[in-house]
Design a protein that fits this description.
The complex is a heterodimer. By secondary structure, chain A is α/β, with parallel strands linked by helices. Chain A is 44% helix and 23% strand. In chain A, helix 1 (2-17) crosses helix 2 (25-33) and helix 3 packs across helix 7. Chain B is an alpha/beta fold. Chain B has two domains: 2-132 and 267-292, Response regulator (Rossmann fold, 3-Layer(aba) Sandwich); 134-264, Response regulator (Rossmann fold, 3-Layer(aba) Sandwich), CATH 3.40.50. Chain B contains ten helices and 14 strands. In chain B, strand 8 (215-218), helix 8 and strand 9 form a beta-alpha-beta unit. The N and C termini of chain B lie far apart (48 Å). Classes of the chains: A alpha/beta, B alpha/beta.
C-alpha cells in the first residue's frame, strides 16, 4: 500500500521533472529506485506531453517551403542550417529541418515495411524528396529537430533511442496509418515533415507529421 | 643595410627560441590523467593517443592508465589520480553503474572527469560525456548487413560486454532495423565480451551447431575479426560479416574482400574534443556544452575504406 503510493507519487514527480527540462538530482536518484518500469514512463510521458503541445506546433512554425529550403541548402548547407535548421551543438552533428512539401507522387514503394513515396516538388519530373510512410520509420529526426529535447535529460542512449522510436510510432499512428495507399502514384500530395542533412548531396528523407492527398490547398 | 638585416635576423632567431621554450613552461598547467580499457584493442589505443597528444599540445603533463575493464582496478587508478593531484581525468569507463562512485570521488576531490565512448548511468557527476551515436551507427551497419544478405537468411549476432551500455544500444539499433524483415532469422545471439579470442571460440562453436548461417553481425570490430578468423579457418569465407568501430584491421580485411563493412566511430577526434573541453572547463569554469553529447558514426565499406586511418576518415 505504502510503497505503491510512493511509486505513484515518484512517477508523478518524474512526469513533471522531465518535461520542465531540469532534472532535480533527488528526483533522479529516486527514479533509480523506481527501476525500469519508470524508464518506460519517462519516454511515454515525454511523448504524451510534448507531441501535441510542443512538437507539432514547433515543427509547423519552423516549416519552410521545400523549394526555398532546397535552394538554400544547394547554396550552402551551413548557412541554410543556421537560418532554418536545428542541430545539437556537438561537433559533426547533422542539420535537422522542418519543411512544407507540395508535389506530385511519381513513385511509391508500399511493399516494404519501410514504405516510401517519391515526390517531385518542382515539376521537372525528377524526385526531390522521399516521404516515409511507415510502419517502419527510419532515423531519429522527429526527436532531433526539437531543441527542447536534450540527451542529458535521459538516462542513457537506450532510453534516448526509445524516445525517437516513440515519436516515430506516434507520427505513424496519427497521420500515416490512415493514409490510403492504393493510388499514390500520380496523386498530388501536401505534407509537413522533418528531415536530416549530413551533407548537401544527401537524399531528402522526410518523416511527415501531417499529410494529405489531393489538389494543393 | 646588411648590418640592419643581421639585426632583424638575430631578433627573429631569438623569438623562435623563446617560442620553442614556451611549451615547457606551459607544462605547469598540471597533469591530465587518461584512463581507458586495455590498449590491446586498437580502438582504446587510438583514444588514449588522441587524448595524450592533444593534452601535451595544450601544455599538460599526461598520465596514461588502463583499467582492463576491471571496475576494482579502475577504482584504484582513481585513487592514484587523486593522490597525484591531477587537474582532470579523461575516461573511457569500466562499467556504466560501477564507474559512478569513483568519478564522484574524484569530483569531491576537485577533479573533474570528461568521459568518452561509454556513458555512465547518472548525469551531474561527470562534466562531459561524449559518446558516439551508437544507435545511429548500428542502424547504418544493419542496413548494410541487410543489403549484403539480400534481406533474407539465417544469421548470428555477437554482442559486447553486458555492463557496457554500448553493447545494448548497438544490439537494439541492429534489431530495430533487421527485425522488420521477416525473412531474416537470427539463429544465435551470444556475448563475446568485445574479445577477439572469445569471438573466435564462440564462432567455432556457433558454426558447428549452425553450419547454415549466412551472416554474422558483430557489436565491435575485434569480435568481427575473431569471427572472421574462425570462419576463414573453417573455409567459410562466404559468410557476410559486419563489424562496428572502424579499426585498421577491419579496414584491411574489407579492402582484402573479407569482412564486408564496419561503422566508424570518430574515436581519435572524440578523445581530442574531451581534452579541449577539459582545458576550456579548467580555464573558464564551463565547457559551454551539454553534459551528454552524441557524435555521429559513418558507414565504412569497400567504397571508402581506403580513406580510413586510425579511427578517422580523410576526405
Amino acid at each position: 500500500m505504502c510503497s505503491s503510493v510512493l511509486k505513484a507519487s515518484l512517477a508523478l514527480l518524474l512526469a513533471f521533472a522531465i518535461p520542465s527540462c531540469k532534472i532535480v538530482s533527488n528526483a533522479e536518484r529516486q527514479a533509480k529506485l523506481a527501476a525500469d518500469e519508470s524508464e518506460a514512463d519517462i519516454v511515454g510521458a515525454t511523448v504524451e506531453r510534448a507531441w501535441e503541445a510542443e512538437a507539432l506546433p514547433h515543427i509547423k512554425a519552423k516549416a519552410v517551403p521545400f523549394n526555398d529550403l532546397k535552394v538554400a541548402i544547394a547554396a550552402d548547407l551551413m548557412t541554410a542550417g543556421a537560418a532554418h535548421g536545428y542541430r545539437q551543438e556537438s561537433e559533426g552533428s547533422p542539420w535537422n529541418f522542418a519543411t512544407q512539401i507540395s508535389g506530385l507522387i511519381i513513385a511509391a514503394n508500399t511493399k516494404s515495411r519501410a514504405a516510401t513515396a517519391d515526390v517531385d516538388v518542382d515539376g521537372d519530373g525528377a524526385m526531390d524528396a522521399v516521404l516515409q510512410l511507415g510502419p517502419v520509420i527510419r532515423g531519429t529526426t522527429l526527436r532531433d529537430v526539437l531543441p527542447f529535447i536534450n540527451f542529458t535529460q535521459f538516462r542513457d542512449q537506450i532510453e534516448f533511442a526509445k524516445l525517437a522510436r516513440a515519436f516515430n510510432t506516434r507520427a505513424y499512428e496519427a497521420v500515416l496509418e490512415p493514409l490510403p495507399r492504393s493510388a499514390l502514384i500520380g496523386s498530388r500530395v501536401t505534407a509537413t515533415g522533418v528531415f536530416t542533412m549530413r551533407s548537401a548531396g544527401d537524399k531528402v528523407l522526410v518523416t511527415p507529421i501531417a499529410i494529405a492527398l489531393g489538389p494543393d490547398t | 643595410m646588411i648590418i640592419n638585416r643581421r639585426v632583424v635576423l638575430a631578433g627573429g632567431v631569438s623569438t623562435v627560441a623563446l617560442a620553442a621554450g614556451s611549451p615547457l613552461l606551459a607544462a605547469d598547467k598540471g597533469l591530465i590523467a587518461i584512463i581507458t580499457p586495455s590498449h590491446d584493442n586498437p580502438f582504446f589505443k587510438a583514444e588514449a593517443d588522441g587524448a595524450q597528444s592533444r593534452a601535451e599540445a595544450l601544455g599538460y603533463e599526461t598520465l596514461v592508465l588502463q583499467h582492463d575493464d576491471d571496475p576494482n582496478k579502475q577504482s584504484e587508478l582513481f585513487d592514484t589520480v587523486i593522490a597525484r593531484g591531477a587537474k582532470a581525468v579523461i575516461l573511457d569507463n569500466a562499467g556504466a553503474e560501477a564507474s559512478v562512485a569513483p568519478i564522484r570521488r574524484a569530483k569531491e576531490a576537485g577533479i573533474p572527469s570528461f568521459l568518452i565512448d561509454r556513458e555512465i548511468t547518472e548525469s551531474g557527476v561527470a562534466i562531459s560525456q561524449i559518446v558516439s551515436n551508437n544507435y545511429q551507427g548500428a542502424q547504418l551497419g544493419a542496413e548494410e548487413f541487410l543489403r549484403q544478405m539480400g534481406e533474407a537468411g539465417k544469421y548470428a549476432e555477437l554482442v559486447g560486454k553486458e555492463s557496457d551500455t554500448n553493447a545494448g544500444i548497438r544490439s537494439s539499433g541492429y534489431h530495430d532495423v533487421i527485425d522488420q524483415f521477416p525473412d531474416m532469422e537470427m539463429v544465435v545471439q551470444q556475448s563475446a565480451n568485445w574479445s577477439q579470442t572469445e569471438a573466435f571460440e564462440k564462432m567455432e562453436t556457433i558454426l558447428q551447431a549452425n553450419p547454415e548461417i549466412k551472416g554474422v553481425i558483430s557489436g565491435n570490430d575485434t569480435m568481427a575479426m575473431g569471427a572472421w578468423a574462425a570462419l576463414s579457418a573453417a573455409g567459410r569465407k562466404d559468410v557476410i560479416v559486419v563489424g562496428f568501430d572502424g579499426s585498421n584491421d577491419v579496414r584491411d580485411s574489407i579492402l582484402d574482400g573479407g569482412i564486408k563493412a564496419t561503422v566508424l566511430q570518430p574515436a581519435y577526434r572524440q578523445a581530442e574534443i574531451a581534452v579541449e573541453q577539459a582545458d576550456k572547463y579548467l580555464n573558464e569554469g564551463s565547457t559551454g556544452q551539454s553534459e551528454k553529447q552524441l557524435m555521429d558514426c559513418v558507414l565504412i565499406t569497400e567504397e571508402n575504406a581506403g580513406d580510413l586511418e586510425t579511427f578517422a576518415l580523410s576526405s
